[in-house]
Amino acid sequence: MASEVVTMTRNPQVGSDDEPYGTVQHWDEMYRGREQVFSGDPNGVLVAETGGLPPGQALDVGCGEGADARWLARRGWQVTAVDISEVALRRAAAAATAADSEGRVAWARADLTSTPPPAGAFDLVSVQYFPLRRRPGHATLRGLLDAVAPGGTLLFATHSPADLARHQDADLDPADYYQPDDIARLLDPTWHVLTNETRPRAAPAPTGTHHTHDTVLRAQRLP
Q: d(Cα 214, Cα 200) in Å, to the nearest integer?
């Protein structure tokens, strides 16, 4: 039986007509347009950076079709996998087998830009290629940072600025979105930055893209 998808907010919605990369409609249409959007493999940054962490509570931000969440669950994590696209979440839940998760994944439809996750609740907050848009006051980002428990880990990965600069979509301005350096500068002394670097992608870039390098931030909140 497929896992249940729970709606955490009454009307999950992000963005407006001038922000197509934030709307529920944009993401639902993208997933409906293809039988499978992503490879089904966990992101290489997640595997490389968290393989040695003891399992606990994890938040998978923008979980998409669920490969990262299932990978974490197979390693003993209890995962809250969040996305605004119900199409993606139902696909992810349908792909989750007992062997994958054994009930360790909660699939949740929510808008984390308007409803922050619970503070101090997660030993790992994983943000993999999620289009985290800069906002005055950094409210969404601060909500994600606050969700990391003492001793827990924030893992943020996105495409390098050089790759994004070659993006052909005029609707996307890379300067509108956070990079690891932006986040590192906002961390207070209760954080220790373990990784802040640009590295080659662990897997080939999706067809039609120019993404050859990732930027990665891994930071630990001090106990």
A: 6
What's the chain's average pLDDT? 83
Compute the distance between CA of residue 69 and CA of residue 77 in angstroms, rounded to an integer: 9
CA distance 128 to 90: 19
Check whether 170 has a pLDDT greater than 60: no
Domains of the chain listed by start with CATH number: 44-221 (3.40.50.150)
**Segment 81-104 mean pLDDT:** 82
The span from the CA of 204 to the CA of 160, in Å, is: 14
Beta strands per DSSP E along the chain: 5-7, 57-61, 78-83, 105-109, 122-128, 148-159, 191-200, 213-221
- The token pair that represents 52 in the structure block: 């040695």
Find residue 219's DSSP bridge partners. 154, 193
Alpha carbon separation from 122 to 5, 164, 221 (Å, rounded): 20, 30, 11
Question: What pLDDT does 205 receive?
Answer: 67
Please tell me the chain's helix, strand, coil percentages from 3-state DSSP, rounded to the nearest 5: 30, 25, 45
Tokens 């428990």 correspond to what residue?
149
Q: What confidence tens digit (pLDDT) does each residue in 25-50 have?
A: 766 676 675 667 666 589 999 999 99
